[in-house]
Amino acid sequence: MIRFALGASAGLAAMTAPAIAAEIQIASAGPVIELTVSDTVNAKPDAAMVSAGVTTRAASANEAARLNAVRMDQIIAKLKQLGVPADDIQTSNFSLNAQYTYNNDGRQPTFVGYDVNNQVMVKLRDIRKIGPTLDALVAAGANNFNGPNFVLENDAAARSEARRNAFASAEARARELAGYAGFKSVKLLELSETYQTVSPVYARGEAIAVSAQAMDKTTPIQPGLVGTAAQLNVKYEMTK
Length: 240
Prior knowledge:
Elements: E1 2-5, H1 10-13, H2 18-21, E2 32-43, E3 47-58, H3 61-81, E4 89-101, E5 110-124, H4 130-140, E6 144-151, H5 156-180, E7 185-194, E8 226-239
Antiparallel strand pairs: 1-7, 2-8, 3-5, 3-6, 4-5, 7-8
Helix pairs in contact: 3-4
């Protein structure tokens, strides 16, 4: 949270260190209005996160892991061949589980093998290449996907616009409320901004079966718009 406290005296104005300003208790002469206002600006995304991986099954855990490693090597090699930097490829999950078929007739579950799942989280910075990249990963052996989750990495302009809109809305609402109470204007006493970091949650994807005929067409991707939000907490004194 970034917090600014504004006072009427020159002494307070001279205190520029944020840590000092955050601790100042401002006494107001008139009634006070406190508001929390937010605004969201939509913009085209400039990157996307995709979870891609492989699930393999075999009679032994070692064999399931070996088969999985071979196919994951192919997927990672394909990503690098497509120009994805190594820093944009990160392992997000590795799991090994015994699988059983459960019967409804009271018999013991039947062991069917071991499943190994390995997933990597990939950041794709060229939106236009997401569809062809997914198709190339399927051809390389990937059978688990989740995403894409679109993001706006260069969000400074959008966040600044959202902040500006939120501040204008807060001031207009404060003046409106002050007018209802018989006051002529308002004076800003305190302003703070709250940042919220939202981390996407990627669930395990379902296995995908792709036929040769299906691969004749590029996977369609629609990026749409992503929102960038700013939230301001303001305190105004109502003045005559």
